[in-house]
Every structure is written in structure tokens, then in C-alpha cells.
Write a structure and sequence with these properties.
This protein has eight helices and 17 strands. With 347 residues, it is of the alpha+beta class.
């Protein structure tokens, strides 16, 4: 975590989680890859590598896509951001293989600017208020996947993108590295003056929030062993688009179908569940645990599991077996925790 965020960091993962779900949490974007893609053929080159059509992406708009290899293995998610003349591609933590492929295939047209630019994300039910009052942005006019460019105090461009991973109101701020510490300090002072909880939350807290809303976390999803349809990643694909890396293999997977699906489960008697644990029904193996965490809101383990497709519905009781023995789990609907922002409009 950057030094200027470390100074206002939440004392624990649980405290950071509460900031995300109840207030406004600053998330260090150091784990993101930041590529600047330039040149006359930048849009065409990017379009050949991602699962959504970005060749005619409107200026000041973001597209969230997958990057696949030739076998349609999902390497990660990327945010393709179309600025006035260039593209910025953000790759979140866990999607390093996607970033590597983009950098390799795009060649000289792609420049890693992460050493010169800082990315800070702000997420939570009150995030919009901070963006509105500190950065003087009309949040009502900044749509989801939109970009607002403003001029920082040092005269450099600062980009505010309405993207996020927690399910709450969320924005990503991209600016010169030297400008971000003063901006974070201004946000902290604003929070103190307004009686608003603002602090820095860890990536671990973000991962719990992502899992609660089934946002793809490529640091834990078994994308090399399981196909993207079983893992529920198909919403990141634009099916009418053709001619990109992995398209033909993806179509074959789609036509073949799959025998298991990703579902949520809860284990109310547990504070820990081993990844890969066997899931059975009437002594027959029907699935395995893919991801697991303790939700501070629930107070017990929840997670995702790959279950035989005919059983991948909510309200089914299964038996989970790991090194700590057997326990009962129940499949539940998504999201496990409903984000506050879904029911709390901007004032």
C-alpha cells in the first residue's frame, strides 16, 4: 500500500470491509497494470485481443472485457478506457497474465505508465459524495463506465472513471504520481469535516466484497483448469463480435456445453473452509469448493463452488469434507450480501 494511504489505513481487514460497505474506502491501485496504447491502429490492435468490441468505443467510455488465449482460457479482465486520443488499459490484481499478453502482442504501441501514474479507487455508498465535493464533478452526469477528465492543481490531466469491483458506488482516479498524495489528504480532511468515514481499505477487504457479489477475482478462480462458462464469465463476452484471440475456441466451448456451474454456498458452522474441498450429496461427489472467505457481515464462511449443473440451484443442502472433517453447506442466491448502494440513490 502506498505510504500516503498507509497513514489512513483501516486497522484491520474487517474495518476496511466496513468502510467499503458503509462509507467511502480508498483502495490502492498499485496492483493494477496501467498500459497506454497509442498509434493510428491502437483501436484495431486492442480489438483483436479482447472479448468486446472496442474499435468504435466512444471517447470517455470504458469497456470491461476478458482477454483469452488461443484455447479460450480466460487470462483476466481488463478495463479499456478510451481517452481523447489514446487508450488506457487497466488490469486489476489477479489479471497479470492478461496484462502480459496485451503488452507482448501490442508491442511498441503499448507503454507501461504505472511508474508515472497513480491509480486510487474509491468505493462505498458515500464514494459519490467525495467525488462530487472534493473533485467538483457532477456525478449525476457521469454514467457507469464513463470517464471525466479534469485538470489537477499542477496543471496535469486527472481522469475519474466510474468503474469498481465491490458492487457499491465506485470510481477510479488516475493521475500523476506526484499529485495523488495531496488529493488523498484533501479527501481525508473532507471526511473529517463532514463526519464521514473515509480511510484506506486493503485488497483483502476488496476481495471479500468481490466474492459477496460474485465479481470475478482471477487471483483465486481456477481459469486454467475450468472453462469460462462453468465459471460464469460469459457476461464479459460480446457474442456477435468475431475475429479476436480465442474466439473460435470459445465458440466450440459454447456449443459443447458444460456439466457444472458456479454457485454460492454458506457454511454457518465454519470459520474456515479448504479450497478444493469435496462436496457430496447422498455420498456422491457432485462438486468442489472454488473460493471461500469469512464475511464480516455474516460472521461465517461463504464462497463459490462448482456443482453439477442439474444441482446448481439455491436452497440445496450438501456435505462438504475437508481436513477439519464434514460440515453442512447450503447453496444460496447471489449476492450473498446486497450492496448498500443498490438501494441508496445519490442525493
Amino acid at each position: 500500500m502506498k505510504d500516503y494511504l498507509e497513514k489512513i489505513a483501516a486497522p484491520s481487514m474487517e474495518d476496511g470491509y466496513r468502510l467499503i460497505r458503509q462509507g467511502a474506502a480508498l483502495i490502492d491501485g498499485s496492483g493494477f497494470g496501467i498500459l497506454k496504447v497509442t498509434g493510428e491502429n491502437a483501436a484495431e490492435a486492442l480489438n483483436a485481443l479482447v472479448t468486446k468490441d472496442v474499435q468504435y468505443l466512444n471517447i470517455d467510455t470504458v469497456s470491461e472485457c476478458l482477454v483469452l488465449n488461443e484455447e479460450a482460457c480466460a487470462l483476466g479482465t481488463v478495463y479499456v478506457c478510451h481517452l481523447d486520443a489514446d487508450f488506457i488499459v487497466l488490469t486489476p490484481p489477479g489479471s497479470e497474465k492478461a496484462a502480459e499478453k496485451l503488452a507482448s502482442d501490442l508491442g511498441e504501441s503499448a507503454t507501461d505508465v504505472s511508474a508515472k501514474q497513480d491509480l486510487v479507487c474509491i468505493e462505498g455508498p458515500k464514494a459519490w459524495q467525495v467525488i462530487r465535493d472534493v473533485l467538483k464533478i457532477n456525478v449525476d452526469m457521469l454514467p457507469l463506465r464513463g470517464i471525466e477528465e479534469i485538470t489537477g492543481q499542477n496543471g496535469s490531466a486527472l481522469y475519474v472513471m466510474r468503474i469498481g469491483r465491490s458492487g457499491e458506488y465506485a470510481y477510479a482516479i488516475l493521475a500523476d504520481a506526484g499529485f495523488m498524495p495531496s488529493l488523498v489528504e484533501e479527501m481525508k480532511t473532507y471526511g473529517q469535516n463532514q463526519g464521514l468515514a473515509i480511510g484506506a481499505a486493503s485488497e483483502d477487504a476488496m476481495k471479500v466484497c468481490m466474492l459477496e457479489t460474485l465479481q470475478p477475482d482471477f487471483s483465486s478462480l481456477p481459469t486454467e483448469e475450468e472453462d469460462l462458462f462453468s465459471l460464469g464469465l460469459q457476461w464479459l463476452i460480446q457474442y456477435e463480435k468475431e475475429d479476436y484471440c480465442g474466439h473460435d475456441a470459445m465458440k466450440e466451448l459454447f456449443e459443447k456445453g458444460h456439466e457444472q456451474d458456479l454457485v454460492f454456498f454458506t457454511a454457518k458452522d465454519r470459520r474456515n473452509v479448504e479450497i478444493g474441498s469435496e462436496i457430496t450429496l447422498d455420498s456422491e461427489t457432485v462438486g468442489k469448493v472454488v473460493q471461500a472467505a469469512v464475511s464480516p457481515a455474516l460472521g461465517y464462511v461463504f464462497g463459490s463452488a462448482l456443482i453439477r449443473s442439474d444441482l446448481a440451484v439455491t436452497g440445496v443442502l450438501f456435505t462438504l469434507t475437508d481436513k477439519d472433517g464434514e460440515c453442512e453447506i447450503e447453496t444460496v442466491a447471489s449476492p450473498v450480501i446486497r450492496p448498500v448502494s443498490w438501494d441508496q440513490p445519490m442525493e
